Amino acid sequence: MTNFQEPIYDVAQLAHVELLSPKLEESVDFFTRFLGMEVTARAGQSVYLRAYEDFYHNTLKITVAEEAGVGHIGWRATSPQALQRRVEEIEKTGLGRGWIDGDIGHGEAYQFTTPDGHLMEIFWEVDYFKAEEHQKSKLLNRPTKRPDRGVPVRRLDHINLMTSNPGVDTQFMIDTLGFRLREQIQDNGNVLGSWMSVSNLVHEIAYMQEPNREKGKLHHLCYWYGIPQNLYDVADLLKDHGCFIEVPPNKHGVSQAFCMYVYEPGGNRIELFGDAGYIITDPAWEPVIWQMEDVPGNGDTWIGTAFPESWWVRGTPVTSPEVVKP
Amino acid sequence: MTNFQEPIYDVAQLAHVELLSPKLEESVDFFTRFLGMEVTARAGQSVYLRAYEDFYHNTLKITVAEEAGVGHIGWRATSPQALQRRVEEIEKTGLGRGWIDGDIGHGEAYQFTTPDGHLMEIFWEVDYFKAEEHQKSKLLNRPTKRPDRGVPVRRLDHINLMTSNPGVDTQFMIDTLGFRLREQIQDNGNVLGSWMSVSNLVHEIAYMQEPNREKGKLHHLCYWYGIPQNLYDVADLLKDHGCFIEVPPNKHGVSQAFCMYVYEPGGNRIELFGDAGYIITDPAWEPVIWQMEDVPGNGDTWIGTAFPESWWVRGTPVTSPEVVKP
Amino acid sequence: MTNFQEPIYDVAQLAHVELLSPKLEESVDFFTRFLGMEVTARAGQSVYLRAYEDFYHNTLKITVAEEAGVGHIGWRATSPQALQRRVEEIEKTGLGRGWIDGDIGHGEAYQFTTPDGHLMEIFWEVDYFKAEEHQKSKLLNRPTKRPDRGVPVRRLDHINLMTSNPGVDTQFMIDTLGFRLREQIQDNGNVLGSWMSVSNLVHEIAYMQEPNREKGKLHHLCYWYGIPQNLYDVADLLKDHGCFIEVPPNKHGVSQAFCMYVYEPGGNRIELFGDAGYIITDPAWEPVIWQMEDVPGNGDTWIGTAFPESWWVRGTPVTSPEVVKP
Amino acid sequence: MTNFQEPIYDVAQLAHVELLSPKLEESVDFFTRFLGMEVTARAGQSVYLRAYEDFYHNTLKITVAEEAGVGHIGWRATSPQALQRRVEEIEKTGLGRGWIDGDIGHGEAYQFTTPDGHLMEIFWEVDYFKAEEHQKSKLLNRPTKRPDRGVPVRRLDHINLMTSNPGVDTQFMIDTLGFRLREQIQDNGNVLGSWMSVSNLVHEIAYMQEPNREKGKLHHLCYWYGIPQNLYDVADLLKDHGCFIEVPPNKHGVSQAFCMYVYEPGGNRIELFGDAGYIITDPAWEPVIWQMEDVPGNGDTWIGTAFPESWWVRGTPVTSPEVVKP
Questions:
Q1: What sequence ranges are listed for the domain VOC (chains A, B, C, D) (predicted)?
Q2: CA 20 to 30 Å from A61, out of A109, A213, B14, D145?
Q3: Which ipTM score applies to this complex?
Q4: Chain C partners (3+ C-beta pairs within 8 A)
């Protein structure tokens, strides 16, 4: 291990995600009424939201669009210097799009696409959420009071993208942005899925194979509870109110996450994360490589029934007519 | 923020802790029977143990001693280069003790003391636990099967030390080892307690004021469940079997940890950690500073009854006769 | 056991309770906003409410009054014949008050007082809650959908009354109404508390000694979750919104109930019940008699800190100035 | 409702069940090691066990047999008089088998079969479990300490039998033993399943249609936790130790039970019950009748994936070769 390469830590976190929705107000109603999120701004065709333990102004932007999907993904750099270093690396790949002035909630950002065409941006300056007096918690480490609506999620967790070529996108995230590979599913040497992080979590981003090799799709966006029972509470609430639950509470083998998957009214898949999975603190972590035949329980379920076909093949925008729409 | 200083990440994790116990076999029985830990080695006056999701050979060494307390605290560096950098910093302080050959479970280590006199060591080379075939889980990210004994803890979490001067020790950990301050309790400008980490967790180490300004005491060692209900399960088990529970399940304000405190038979306080608290991903995190009068619920309890006097004053070794012994 | 006396089963259940509140609208806001209950009627100085799994029109009536306390307690008989038998027994005691025409939610009722002066009534005819189409759950055994407000309680559970003489009231409930004694706390032969039921639950009613031997007070009214984690969720919510939690989540020794106690804004103590305690199915159940010195944990706590003094001495209306008001 | 018929309460509870196992010691190991049960006697080809909150000497008898299945089902009467009344009713049906002297744990019992041929017995005299001093809990309402093995179940809950004709057996239990129908699944007027109780619980016994109209099979036996998280804990334990989980944690629509189904090594299906479902206290309860098309989630699942085919068709003894054996 004497040749151990020192890791790069230039991306700090997943800071926000823009979802596209053909049913903007219904989507906003879902996130606020059932998941207890808060609208912090509206501008043009977009609504900005945050969970009650998100520290920044917003972590979710929902924008009207004809089809569901992901607009862009926002990464915060670890420092201004780190931002510069990453922009230089991105520019070498020819995938850079250039700087934008920023958006509600953050300052200037450098935009780029991944090999599969997902739009991303990286930035340093952020706006913290400023709670009004009546919104403040006496918990100084909690930016706002726990909401009295729905079963409130606590913070943004991660994003999972479908890609025409997981191996290529995985390598891009590692080489260009400094992500570390934590777990991977392979099949005869092909990469079917990758879980990557820049933290002690197993992933801020995951890639999955799009079965028809279509590009640029969203698999899911995930918000976090950290309390297993809350998945049952929210599932009970959603079931009674007619929301579609694709995967009821279930424990992944990969990442050990206690998870659940629902569709928001716009059609995007949302994961709700019920515990802390496991934490990686080993600096020399060797990626856990699963061969497809070893993935537990007929498709990555440790405690739970095998995931439905739709979970494996449906991303947004939905392009194959045979794929179930909610 | 343009002058933001890039963080140092040279310590990766709390790797192991040595506890001292006047009742070695009773202590071992407590950790194995009730907390489901496993003995991985015995040598001389010491027994080595691990939890079922600890990846290394051991995370706990219990050594016979006349009095309870902490033997030493082992940190793993982020890389061989990081180890060298930290040793140089430590040597500048005059608190270095020099290199040792290692111990069961890790290679050569550099030992030093903190200003308060706690013995620590830092190293790079570790031995991973090698499960025998019948011990292996089909979960490739879990090093051994979940035990069928007690309510099994999953991994080592953090250590909390009592010190004659928390301000001085806090600064040492920040300046010399690169820890970041996450939360702090102050009283009229004096530091009463500090929570520090080198990760997304709120702390791998905390310091608390020893009320009589005695040096070198242990407040507690913490193992992690991540599942809130498990604290009730283990409390029920421990209560029925006559173990002393100093603080029943309770939610700290500082760190938001869902916690519980018990005394192992040797007399050391053990924390059991029931959830994930909250996670810090903001690279520019400003430490949360609590003034003593703002600490929730009459002494750092958010949901729960005020902690007993003993929790605030008793460290091991117990030196004040008036302090409750279990 | 051949002389085993066949039990009487003439009271079926606790059907509703009337609370008195000097702050009617604030009390209603508490039950609807934080506990997710629903207002089903308003009439005169009263508001009627139900939890989402209560099958009847209402289980809680809150009436304006100068002081907090209990208005009356409503029992449903097991059959019309059982109602007649019980009225005959009550009339023998001289404590009968006579028939009333009924109230919103139930038909004619026979009113009486207990020896301590608590007003009760017994009846047969009830009105079931009739959900409108949009309120109906697809769960046919759930009368309405799970609410999207607060952490919603599921159903009325039990009532606990303070009395000047628990022994006398206990005997009245057994002899006159057919309750069975399940658990009791005694001190030197004196009855300090009794838990009684007409079901497999440990209690629909409990009596506790009022320390100043004052009459007619309420100790608490209890609603049920059945899910332990929900107590932590609602405690977190209430704490953030400034509600007074007298006893955070705790496990009683007596009844094994996982409990929590809060004050509603009118001043009455409300228990929230987090699990199922234990169930009595043995038809020859011998009451569990606790001597005060055997009551666990310094005052009936199995897992949790000793209950505060206020829990032992404060009933509503509050008559002793030294007792804490919220 | 003036003609409301007063209910009969002559059966008090499900007191014990005899399972048949071709792998006696493996079955005993499963119940003791993973479910924390205790062997209280061994005699001949049988082993007797209890859970730690079972009050009687035993609730489970496992007897060696060539095929898995149920030996007999033991009901305790509400009183000696109730026993006599029930025996008279049974004898009228011609299904009586006569008195036996009793067995380890209970006194003389009257044996009979149901129309489908399941062997049952009813009795009054029971032996309570007498804990030795070191086994006693300080909780006087808990007959023995919580075990330190596995994830310990708390008490026997109910039995579910497969029958060639659920309508006929349901009527027998109601007319002859005094059970009350709580919920039922019908299909075009045919009874497919019935849930019946003599308590506030939804069922002590359920009947399901055996698809090939074979007689005398067991669907499952159920032990109770009452704590939802414990299902995940025991599922994790069982999964790691290679036990077959047929249905991972799931919430039934019928009965609202939070459930899980596993096969013990002898081949019998065991349900583990994670919460309290809902409680029936209404004395005039109208059975909830589900039409097959209204049963939630493609086969009686409220929160969870549809039950596998095996759950609907496999009883023990397994007679159809095409049915999955674990």
A1: 13-125, 155-275
A2: A213
A3: 0.95
A4: A, B, D
